[in-house]
Amino acid sequence: MLVQLLFVLSSKPITCQPLAPIQPSRTSPPFPLFQQPFPSLQPPPQFQPPPQFQPPPPFDPIVNGPWGAFDVRILLDPNFNYDFTPLPDYVLEHMARFCDHFPMHPGCRLAQRWQWKGRVPPVKPESTITTTTTTLPPIPTITIPDPLQGVPSGLRGAITHFAFTKLNDNEKHDILMACAGKVKCFEQSENSTRKRMAIARQEIALKKMLQAETLNAEQAIELRHVRTQQVKQAILRRAGLADQVVAADDGTFQNDILLTEHQSNWLLNEINALDGRRKRDSVFLENAPLQRWQSGTPIKYSFHSSLNADDEEVVRKALRAIEKSTCIRFEYVAERPKSTYIYYVKNPDPTICGLSFIGRVDPVNPIYLSFMCADSIGVAVHETMHALGVNHQQLRADRDEYVSVQWTNINPQQYDYFAIADTSQFTSYGVGYDYYSIMHYSPFVGGIDPNKPTLVPKLQPERFIKIIGQRKGLSDRDVELLRVMYCNPGCEDKNVYCGLWALKRFCGMMNHERWMKENCRRSCGFC
């Protein structure tokens, strides 16, 4: 039986308005989910940085999403035929969770007038959660050392900060054309909203299962998703698009990456620095939030009970593929270990092939796999590579030398799929760009027209457009990168830019060779 929610409202036609951006200094309750009467839906305000340059949090994914213009009389008018247009469970779940978090909200204080018929609400209220404000904790200022300090001037001059660059006028024009056509750039799509809610449900359930202390499980997940959205919106701001585009609030970064709160805070500090909002520092990889696993020690992994025997075999084949070509070893543990481990969880959503954090995350690295996409073994390899610290291939600093981004077919809300990663956090270790990499995106990802490419190889395009995005197996350069990262303990780079210098052939230059031998042993192959 469908859940029916009865609520007393005026008989005037009612529409919803998007939530106003939450300001960190705000102490009043959030904008109500329901109020009488509802103001007409207006275009959302332009995104402006809040005090102390805090990027604005996203709109509420339900109110600002596909149900923002939903005529709530269909749901709330006791005289209306509820079976005519039932509200989806994921929307009801969000409403119930919202009022559980914000019981002092004006709309939630009328909860005694709600009547649930047929079954209980989709979310059981948490009696321990008593949050009464929407104020977000401020983004902490992170002190980031400058790896270019003490570097010879000839090497410093070869470094350009490629990350999160501003689009030129032609690129901005091309990508924003979509906002006047097929893409509602200020609204959240139903797919994004469903994805965010599905990820939140699974992460909350996992967090409560793994941790004895569950008091703040839901708040922690929600804050992390808000921070991820702030990063995506800050990247849009950096590109010059934020006044006209709201990023897809789907809980992920670059479609299949989950960011920790610390990683998001780090990226926000980086972007603020690029904007001139604080002194520009670069990120030293070894101190950055991206962490590698210990070389020479087997990486423990375990399975959630949601995986069946066939699913487990898919993962084992993926891990054997990595072990076969590298020194990396994985060790299955049936019981939860005390040390950090990878935890494979089945995601029931067929639209999500896989999700993973990037780099080692304490105390557990969950990897979510649906096992319902083509090349499921390759998908498992791809997501495990993320957990090992490998980023997407087409977000490298030298991306534009190898592929052309087709901005006229890019969904502006998915701009983060194409924003070059921060070169001061990710290093190539001197391994060249690779069309064959299992970490490369499909040529059609993030497109408005799924039949037209968004990424076109510059070299032999007719040949390589059929190859990029493959999930059949590790390429030779994928293997080379993992070996450089993990298979020569004690051979380290002292500077995150060593990979770029190696690709520019500075390793063997007479005037730089001595410095490179002392500081870039790994990327230059000096050990």
UniProtKB/TrEMBL annotation:
Binds 1 zinc ion per subunit. SUPFAM superfamilies: Metalloproteases ('zincins'), catalytic domain. GO terms for molecular function: metalloendopeptidase activity; zinc ion binding. SMART domains: ShKT, ZnMc. Residues 1-16 form the signal peptide. Residues 287-488 form the Peptidase M12A domain. Residues 491-527 form the ShKT domain. Metalloprotease. This is Metalloendopeptidase. The lineage of its organism: Eukaryota, Metazoa, Ecdysozoa, Nematoda, Chromadorea.
